[in-house]
Request: fold
Amino acid sequence: GAGVSQSPRYKVAKRGQDVALRCDPISGHVSLFWYQQALGQGPEFLTYFQNEAQLDKSGLPSDRFFAERPEGSVSTLKIQRTQQEDSAVYLCASSLVGGTGRTEAFFGQGTRLTVV
Amino acid sequence: AQTVTQSQPEMSVQEAETVTLSCTYDTSENNYYLFWYKQPPSRQMILVIRQEAYKQQNATENRFSVNFQKAAKSFSLKISDSQLGDTAMYFCAFTDLNTGTASKLTFGTGTRLQVTL
Reply:
């Protein structure tokens, strides 16, 4: 596709529900990142994939958060038993080659998750 | 751990004027990149400008330029001839090239820029 596509754009979940957020990166991009952006804050790193391999998940806040990219393309961020503190915008970014900082990361428009 | 600090929560500038957004960072690394991203209400982060730490020359992109002071760990963004379309949140970000495989970004808390007529 022309850019990074995320769905849904908005998600309202009742506390305790499971949610799945989808990211469709730019075709051919090797690297894929997930970030969490709380209201009024900058994005914070969650996890990183190089193709289908999850090479860094140090930013995942708890074991309720799980991400996968089984075929090295589309990625899904799953949050189990959602809590109010999970309310945030979840941003996905992809870049052409393995993360070196030398290639630009392109961001999607994010999914705004509200847990009520 | 790296930290990025933006001390100006909000800034305002008149159309066609110049504005400077401040950013400081803290790192023990010597090899890194610094970025300014723009986030309009659509939420999509757009790269404005990038600076490589080993380059002494300040980066420029059309109306956007940076003042990179490595010793002071300062990285300010200057927007010249401000336009209404520049209204957005601006985030300063850092990536360490020595993290191995992941060029994960560390962001500041952002500066909300309002361009007025």
